[in-house]
Design goal:
single chain, mainly alpha
Length: 642
């Protein structure tokens, strides 16, 4: 089979095909850097054009976009704190904290190099694992797949935040949000409040942008100044390279985790990234630095997510089961060119298989080099007044959210998710578990339902399930046991409980508890199969949030003053709400210029001439991007009449 490797690379190095690969990379990098758009939007934009090309050229263009999305979204995650994709949430947490410390270039450099390693390892595994991956995937039953989803959720809940109960409450909230809409196991529509918009459930893009992007934008606008308060080193790459070499084996292990998450259908990059991130924390001798700006978190996440998106192609090519949304579009392209994935395609079209491998490997390396070259200029953006960056960033988030259903419901849901993310941030609830719970809700429901239908409750005693449970709980139990002998244990306990009595935490706990209680009684009207997923969140979620509320009430006097920053941010949150309402009334085209003017002249303190020029460019590009996305901007109720 290896004799087909040379003809495949010769075919790829054809000038037209190479140009198509670079065009795909450029589109993938641009859309990867725009929060809310990412790989699916990039591949979707390219899809109409590939039909004017031959099969190898068209597929190379798509692969170029797929291979660099997770490399490029490191930029947004680190500099802005808004993950370019849900799987980059750990990078946003650690990398953005490093950017605030003036270490943006180091975080970007390590992220790019780790992404390159992940992409190359994914390509290598893609080459050699396809003949043997089939039996491995088929050997995993639905109980084991369900437990893998639980592992990703558990790591996100227990590894982040200072308080485990808040992490669990956030995870249960995420699962609940993922249960909104149609039930997988029966013909029920859950928690829709009789709104047509909710019949299809919530958009992952909107949930990710709201929980992370909106909250960070509001926080940075309120604090003023740039993203970094210190000088950002943009010329000394030695530290980044040394950090990469220092953690090379961690990156390699996390890339292997990403590969495994890729070839198991429905696990995907979000779960595998959090498993890799959890592995980085567990293997560290100083886990207390995670969440505050630890370069190991960036290395682990970027090594895993890029490996995952490449190895997503393994189940796609073997079983026609796409490992992710971008892989699903690639599968459609294969069908359109007359290729039908399966074991036979490996033997009948070996040159195509090598073309895929070479395209992925080349794009991973060149994409990392390009990002490395532009990182110094991009890192300097952290010294600019954040309002200058926030103005186009908010417009991009609005556009990204509007791609979900192209209705005003997208705008209001983005605002609601932003409010939840803002409250979680100030209540010290980790937002990552909520996002992971939302992402994993659908596969968890399918696997949980199938496990009970096929095995009953006896699946809990399957050897594979017991092994996964043991591997998941052993480090956690060990840490609890070890903490009993630490001299500073009591001090740490007080630190973990800090903020429980803050007004924001009390309000959020009460709101979530009320929501969970209502949802539980509402779920009693659904069929037994439709209750499975909601009850996974509600039955443990009600006592956890009740515990948080009681503990918060008891600590209210101690933490009653933990509110100044949240009060300072309220006007900016209100301004964003007014902007969304203005879009609803008069449309995006009319509402956007005044909003941009407010951000540039009031928040960024720009001069009239430069502000008008910059604002005109921002608005023009936003209208142009709506045209490129083949989606008209929101008109509003009275917009067409004005």
């Amino acid at each position: 089979m290896l004799e087909h490797a040379l003809p495949a690379i010769e075919a790829l190095l054809d000038p037209i095909r190479l140009a198509a690969l670079f065009v795909g990379m450029a589109v993938g990098m641009i859309f990867g850097m725009l929060p809310g758009l990412g790989g699916v939007a990039a591949v979707s934009i390219l899809l109409p054009f590939i039909y004017f090309l031959d099969d190898y050229t068209g597929l190379a263009m798509l692969l170029g976009a797929i291979s660099v999305v997770y490399t490029a979204d490191t930029i947004t995650s680190v500099l802005i704190g808004a993950p370019g994709s849900p799987a980059s949430a750990p990078t946003a947490i650690e990398g953005h904290a490093l950017a605030k410390q003036g270490k943006a270039a180091t975080a970007l450099g390590v992220g790019f190099l780790a992404s390159m390693v992940g992409g190359l390892l994914g390509a290598l595994i893609l080459l050699f694992a396809i003949p043997v991956a089939g039996p491995i995937v088929l050997a995993l039953g639905t109980p084991e797949l369900f437990m893998f989803a639980i592992v990703g959720l558990f790591f996100a809940s227990s590894m982040l935040g200072k308080n485990l109960s808040r992490g669990l409450a956030a995870a249960f909230l995420g699962i609940f949000l993922g249960s909104v809409g149609p039930a997988s196991a029966d013909a029920d529509f859950r928690f829709t409040f009789d709104q047509v918009y909710l019949l299809d459930g919530l958009s992952l893009t909107i949930v990710a942008l709201g929980l992370f992007g909106v909250a960070e934008v509001i926080s940075m606008l309120a604090s003023g100044g740039g993203i970094s308060r210190g000088e950002v080193p943009v010329t000394h790459w030695k530290d980044g390279f040394l950090e990469f070499l220092k953690h090379r084996w961690l990156i390699f292990r996390c890339a292997l985790i990403g590969v495994f998450g890729g070839f198991v259908p429905a696990v995907g990059a979000s779960a595998s990234t959090w498993v890799a991130y959890g592995h980085a924390i567990r293997s560290s001798k100083e886990p207390k630095y995670f969440g505050k700006g630890d370069i190991r978190g960036v290395a682990a996440a970027e090594g895993a997510n890029n490996a995952t998106i490449i190895s997503d192609l393994i189940p796609t090519l073997l079983f026609s089961v796409p490992g992710g949304p971008a892989a699903a579009i690639f599968l459609g392209a294969l069908f359109s060119f007359g290729y039908y994935p399966g074991p036979r395609m490996i033997t009948q079209n070996p040159e195509l298989m090598f073309l895929i491998v070479w395209s992925v490997a080349l794009a991973s390396v060149i994409g990392a080099i390009i990002c490395f070259l532009i990182a110094p200029a991009l890192a300097r953006l952290t010294k600019l007044p954040f309002a200058l960056i926030a103005a186009p960033l908010v417009l991009v988030m609005v556009m990204g959210a509007y791609q979900s259903t192209s209705t005003m419901g997208d705008m209001f849901m983005l605002l609601l998710m932003g409010l939840i993310g803002w409250a979680m941030k100030h209540a010290d609830w980790p937002r990552a578990p909520a996002l992971v719970g939302f992402v994993l809700a659908d596969p968890m429901e399918q696997y949980f339902w199938l496990s009970n239908q096929i095995h009953g409750w006896s699946w809990l005693m399957r050897p594979g399930v017991l092994i996964i449970i043991g591997l998941m709980l052993a480090p956690f139990i060990y840490r609890l046991w070890k903490s009993r002998f630490e001299k500073e244990g009591k001090v740490q306990d007080v630190e973990r409980e800090k903020g429980l009595g803050s007004p924001v935490n009390l309000a959020l706990s009460l709101t979530v508890l009320s929501l969970f209680t209502w949802a539980f009684f509402e779920s009693l009207t659904y069929s037994p199969d439709s209750r499975l997923l909601p009850w996974l969140a509600l039955i443990p979620g009600i006592p956890v949030t009740c515990f948080l509320l009681i503990r918060g009430y008891l600590c209210r006097e101690r933490d009653k003053d933990l509110m100044p920053q949240s009060i300072k941010e309220l006007p900016y949150l209100l301004s964003l709400g007014l902007y969304v309402f203005a879009i609803f009334i008069v449309g995006f085209t009319i509402a956007t210029p005044p909003f941009v003017a407010w951000m540039l002249f009031s928040c960024a303190k720009m001069r009239i001439h430069t502000g008008l020029l910059y604002g005109t460019v921002i608005c023009t590009l936003s209208f142009l991007l709506f045209s490129i996305l083949r989606n008209g901007a929101p008109d509003g109720i009275f917009g067409p009449l004005i």
